Amino acid sequence: MIIDQQTSQASVRDELPSVNTLSRRSFLRAGAAAGGGLMLGFSLPFATGEAEAAAGDVFAPNAFVRIGSDGKISLIMPYVEMGQGTYTAIPMLIAEELEVDLKQVQLQHASADEKLYANPLLGVQATGNSNAIRGAWEPLRQAGAAARMMLVAAAAKRWEVDPAACRAEHGEVVHAATGRRFNYGELAADAAGMPVPASVELKRPQDFKLIGTPAKRIDTPAKVNGTALYGIDARPPGVKIATLAQSPVFGGRVKSVDDAAAKTVAGVRQIVRLDDAVAVVADHMGAAKKGLEALVIEWDDGPHAGVTTEAIAAELEQASLKSGAVAENIGDVDRAMADAVTKVDATYQLPFLAHATMEPMNCTVHVRKDGCEIWVGTQALARAQATAAQTSGLPLDKVVVHNHLIGGGFGRRLEADWVARAVEIAKHVDGPIKVVWTREEDIQHDMYRPMFAHRLSAGLDGNGMPVAWNNHYAGSSVIARYLPPAFNNGLDPDTTEGAIDLVYDLPNLHVEYVQVEPPGIPTAFWRSVGPSRNVFVTESFMDELAAAAKQDPVAYRLALLDKTPRARAVLALAAAKAGWGEKLPPRVGRGVSVQNAFATYMAQIAEVQVSKDGTVRVRRVVCAVDCGTVVNPDTVEAQIQGAIMFGITAALYGEITLRNGRVEQTNFDSYQILRMNEAPAVEVHIVQSSEAPGGMGEAGTSCIVPAVANAIFAATGRRLRTLPVDTTALKQPA
């Protein structure tokens, strides 16, 4: 695999097409490469305007796919690779329709260009919300199919035969009757002069050769042999290393700095003081850290010095009693509740969570008078570029961003705060500077998954089945800040996913959301975001209803899933594979969770053991998933495995707390991550489906947490309505 970064790419400045219209020409472009070849690209919705065929062998520029005269295919990736398998699954889409082997595809990072590379489902250039495959599914296949048809047409013209008498295979066009063949490289220049096909015929699923088959990760060899470049690996000539201390209270400022001792540390070159941070620039990270430790900084804590977790929780609890924006209303909940035989009430609370990415937050910047160059691993390249331009005071076209592989994103790298911080420091430094955050700085200055409070009530009929469901909750809206146009009438799709449009047939349902932003604390997307909170609440409360009705949790759910056969199928499969109903030892329980999130149906059964001292061990997880058409089953399985570990970490250990405006957690000793010896056995069962692909990166995280909580209830009889798990409450009485 070749992964490089584009340092220059012209932009087409045509008028943008309507976001509701995707014409054939608005996603197909072809043009001749400088050395003779076919350049075929596609514009997704929100990209540049119609690409008209030009005279001769030239099409409009700015392509995603290039077929050179050497026969090699280069894909300029509009999405980023952060461990989720994007750099394998997305090339499979092109290779499938282009009739080439996956090993023939070479990859390059896309440049920062919102017009060319916007995610069609988000409207911005970003990798997130588990929609890279969803967004690329049709456009990339159509681009590959169009290229194949043009290559076939070029060969047929040379042979003076009907294109229908030719076929493409393994990077060649073959004339069936005579066995004559040309490889793609030989045809590239001619193909560039062929007309764009009026219609593009995609393969039938039964004809797929790559899609649906396990493919080895393209990026694995480079990661194993150490040649893969992450953001932290960037080393432009003359680069210095910096680390920093930011105000321990959000919104605080630097009052004074004594840097005399820091300047005597060998290797320390410069101290940079900002309004709310101090950075030490050195020859290497060791010297920078020693210099930072030698600083004597006095802080002005500012207006948020008294903030505590308890105060925020109390505010959210009160807000959940107030009227909010109605996210969904079905039937008449009040009337159904009045007629209910049994009523169940519960309040749930979820904590702030940090991202704690494996690769520390870092950004390398070189600010000059005439431009700014950045080396970074980001999920949102155009946002990083725009932030750097604003911070540096330079025009957007004077900022070049080189993107790299990412060592853990989870939503943290959708932000650009650390890019802005690096540019602020670089403005004071002559030459390139790499700013690396310590783990302590990362955890205490993260942008956190929001804290939420939910207040639920339900009414059951004489058979114990729910006739009324009411969910009233309060918390921060990340989208209101990140993508304001998507926050309408007090609602956005992230804060409501998993709380509305439930898989269950509930005749009367009412859901309200109250936006409450925590004082001074930045909130952000976190792996599975809204569903990571809402599915926990929904599935835990559904378990409470089954218990109140004295019914089996799986059977109870199955009785409510007639309207969603895909959800019913994954639940039945997971229960069967997990041995649901089989006898377990004392203080061992099974818990269930089922969801439709990110357009993927999933059910998980967690088997949990609770020791006498309250320690919880997740022994086994069985997952059944219907994510529509599967591109790479190995990626699906790996995604679920990783997401489950991430979710178990949150369930058992995840919590950010504040005291006197300061985050109390500092490193992995106080913000614990699931250890290897704690990892459960995970079984993944994929349901074959012809539906369009669903999202995969985050679904496993939201599904596992309630499954674990419900398993703990089955093992101990203790219901968990707050996270992380309180092991003290689970201790067996003496």
Describe what you observe in this structure.
The structure is a single chain. The chain is α+β, with helices and mostly antiparallel strands and 734 residues long. It has three domains: 3-225, Aldehyde oxidase/xanthine dehydrogenase, molybdopterin binding domain (Aldehyde Oxidoreductase, domain 4, 2-Layer Sandwich), CATH 3.30.365; 231-302 and 361-436, Aldehyde oxidase/xanthine dehydrogenase, molybdopterin binding domain (Aldehyde Oxidoreductase, domain 4, 2-Layer Sandwich), CATH 3.30.365; 309-352 and 448-730, Aldehyde oxidase/xanthine dehydrogenase, molybdopterin binding domain (Aldehyde Oxidoreductase, domain 4), CATH 3.30.365.10. 28% of the residues lie in helices and 23% in strands. The protein is built from 19 helices and 29 strands. The strands form seven sheets. A seven-stranded mixed β-sheet has the order 12-13-10-20-17-18-19, sandwiched between helices. It has a six-stranded mixed β-sheet with strand order 1-6-5-4-3-2, covered by helices on one side. It has a five-stranded mixed β-sheet with strand order 15-23-22-21-16, with helices on both faces. A hairpin with a 4-residue loop joins strand 2 and strand 3 (37-41). Helix 1 runs parallel beside helix 3 and helix 18 packs across helix 19. It is globular and about 85 Å long.
